[in-house]
Amino acid sequence: MSMKSELKRKALHLTGLTVPLVYILLGKKVALIFVGLSFAVFVALEPLRIVEHLRDKLKKKLGLYVDRQLIEIVEREIDTIAREHEKRSIGAHIYFTLAAFIIVYFFPKDIAIGSIAVATLGDAIAAIIGKPFGKHRFKNGKSIEGSLAYFLTALLILIPLIDVPHAVIGALAGTLAEFYELPPDDNFSNQLAIAVTLYLFRKIAF
Q: Which key words are in the record (predicted)?
């Protein structure tokens, strides 16, 4: 994927910051409704993205009301920002919203907000720094520069929310989860790795 496409993908991922924002401004109940509805809409629309004949039917119907050239442009843009494995399988947005719902529902407010914000912004910063400026790379393509950018971003997010020891542990957990891209998808595992680590550390430390 080109750097331009990567930036477009990360810009779209940054919309995930609406979840902690809604939580902060409107509370847990509204945040759960917001994420739950988003998840339901994404799941309902996902077959139209993955299954070719369903997508063709939709394009044909939309063509009656929307300019066909615009439809082709949108479809092309979606294809350029999708990972190769996502073109015929579940997309990152499904995993992200599912993990966000679990975290908002089960974890304390500060941990939920921090975990989702770090996983969203940290991942974007790691790619923006790591891809063009990463000079010290590992076998999986990740770089020291990208991982360090993730870690520092995580610290800047977590320190105002929780104390420094928890922030360091959470940032480290997120950095490792992002580096190893834990299954089933890093958009799912990254958030949960941070939330679970912070929650357990809090229980053990206090």
A: Membrane, Nucleotidyltransferase, Transferase, Transmembrane, Transmembrane helix
